[in-house]
UniProtKB/TrEMBL annotation:
Belongs to the ABC transporter superfamily. It comes from Actinocrinis puniceicyclus. This is ABC transporter ATP-binding protein. Residues 20-268 form the ABC transporter domain. Keywords: ATP-binding, Nucleotide-binding, Transport. InterPro entries: AAA+_ATPase (IPR003593), ABC_transporter-like_ATP-bd (IPR003439), ABC_transpr_TagH-like (IPR015860), Bact_Polysacc_Export_ATP-bd (IPR050683), P-loop_NTPase (IPR027417). Pfam families: ABC_tran. GO terms for molecular function: ABC-type transporter activity; ATP binding; ATP hydrolysis activity. Gene3D superfamilies: P-loop containing nucleotide triphosphate hydrolases. One of its GO terms (cellular component) is membrane.
């Protein structure tokens, strides 16, 4: 599931020379550990019970450790790294959802986010209601939302489904609508965390084209993905994070090759690129619906 949000900010200040500045950022999570609960027997006998506070300890997880980078206006930055490397955490911090424990984050312009985790659309409401609410939450007026509504649903190819509750959408359909809304809000900075992975080849092609359109308008995009092909295809700059630290920054081909080698993975064929290039048909080809 994807979530989307956008925040109002002043228009980008061209004098700043960057779209995003991340300066010596640390993000720590506090979590509770119960050192007594270290056996399967204990877990089974205490399943679902809340124990007393005795014996439990607070553990700090250093999810992001002293990370610094700037993102230039109109560039597409990819972030790669193993599970738990801190990619989603830094994205949430840039989005303003999670305040850094220390350091500084500056976003120069209006930000729109499409993140893999968190509260997203309301599944009980129709696609139509969610588009309207998403637009209003992003600071658009009712008129602006109405003006963009047709464009958003047409882009998502969901006109037939727009009055159905979103809980009846597949994860790919949900992803299409979330992507359509977040990219039609005129963001200066768009953050996309693994949200592209839900779409089929046709949708990925369209998403790629839409992102190119945003980049041509000097919008800035940051993408987190485990799809190395997508990072190589879409990004012009790449960061590799490992255990909360930024270990490498450079050209996507080089950084991802080093990352894959470190992971012991043979160089990945550009699967995403190949799939994105081929139009495998839209949603209509994949489903059958009947009014009763
Ligand atoms: N809400 C949370 N509470 C406590 N620890 C968390 C929380 N979210 C993430 N972490 C921890 O922070 C670290 C970084 O997690 P994060 O989700 O940023 O990694 P990631 O690189 O996005 O991983 P993945 O590729 O698996 O999505 C991990 O050690 C994770 O266990």
């Amino acid at each position: 599931m994807s979530s989307l949000s956008a925040s109002e900010a002043a228009p980008p200040d061209p004098d700043l020379g960057y779209a995003i500045r991340v300066k010596d950022v640390r993000v720590d999570y506090r979590t509770i550990v119960d050192p007594r609960a270290n056996t399967l027997r204990h877990s089974l006998t205490h399943l679902g019970r809340r124990g007393g506070s005795g014996g439990r300890a607070v553990r700090l997880i250093h999810a992001v450790r002293g990370v610094s980078f700037d993102v230039e206006h109109g560039s597409v930055l990819g972030i790669v790294g193993a599970n738990g490397a801190g990619k989603s955490t830094i994205m949430r911090a840039i989005a303003g959802i999670l305040p850094p424990s220390s350091g500084e984050i500056v976003v120069n312009g209006r930000i729109s986010t499409l993140l893999a985790l968190g509260v997203g659309f309301n599944g009980q409401l129709s696609g139509r209601d969610n588009v309207v609410l998403g637009g209003l939450a992003a600071g658009l007026s009712r008129r602006q939302v109405a003006e963009r509504f047709e464009q958003i649903t047409a882009w998502a190819e969901l006109e037939e489904f727009i009055d159905m509750p979103m809980k009846s959408y597949s994860s790919g359909m949900y992803g299409r609508l979330a992507f359509a809304v977040s990219t039609h809000l005129d963001p200066d900075v768009l953050l996309i965390d693994e949200a592209l992975s839900t779409g089929d080849a046709h949708f990925r092609r369209k998403s790629y084209d839409k992102m190119q359109e945003l980049v041509a308008q000097a919008r800035t995009i940051v993408i987190v993905s485990h799809g190395i092909g997508a990072i190589r295809e879409m990004c012009d700059d790449c960061i590799w994070m490992h255990k909360g630290e930024l270990v490498r920054r450079g050209k996507p081909d080089e950084v991802t090759a080093e990352y894959l080698e470190f992971q012991g993975v043979p160089p990945e064929p550009a699967k995403a690129r190949d799939e994105a290039a081929g139009d495998l048909g839209g949603l209509d080809d994949a489903m059958v619906m009947e009014d009763v």
